[in-house]
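hey m, so remember when u said the tokens were messed up on ur end? i reran from scratch. heres the input so u can diff it against urs
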Amino acid sequence: MDKNFAKVQLSAEEMRLVRDPAWILTKNSVMGKVVAMFAELSGVIRVGGAHRVAPPRRAQGSGGKEPKISKGENYKGLPWVMLDYPRVFGKEDVYAIRTFFLWGHAFSITLHLKGGYKERFLPAILARRAELAAAGFGIGISEDEWAHEHTEETYGPLRDGGGGQGKIGATNEIPGERAWLKLSARVGLEHWDEAPERLSALHSLLMEILSTENLSDEGDR
């Protein structure tokens, strides 16, 4: 049978990798270690934040009371692992802290607030924005609510915005003009050995700021 097949050619580098199983086995080992790291981290943050996870009663959302670890192979072509806790996701209301590992990029920890949760917790965030900035948190500036990677297009410096009341972003954005708010800090892969401690400390800071002890009772009425 005479059949002309289109040639699917490999570059020299692709041919080298396709003939070498070691690199993919190493990648699988690394991903397993990230999952194990996040499993240990989830236990620490669950104990440390359990008494603080008190979302406003009027906001709606779906989720769970336990930390959740997920992983995948194709966030913009790259493997990833994420840990969500607390995790309440609704169409109009989101209240979550997401710890994320993206292959080739970094670890990150992101506070994601939307709808009633954003309205409820924004005063506490504004009151502590200088501390958040000092800890390395930036503000989400992308139009994509679910962008996770740290680039100049996704996160900008967290500033108080000069003279405008309530301004918090790099472009003097007023958070009330957008339904959602994201604050995120990264931990570079060069800090692998210290990553669990750094991520735990960042998570604790967020939970402290969001805790009911730092908020008035007005939002729950």
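this time it looks ok to me. Strands lie at 62-64, 68-75, 78-89, 94-102, 106-114, 138-140, 155-157, 180-188. if urs says something different then somethings off w ur setup not the seq
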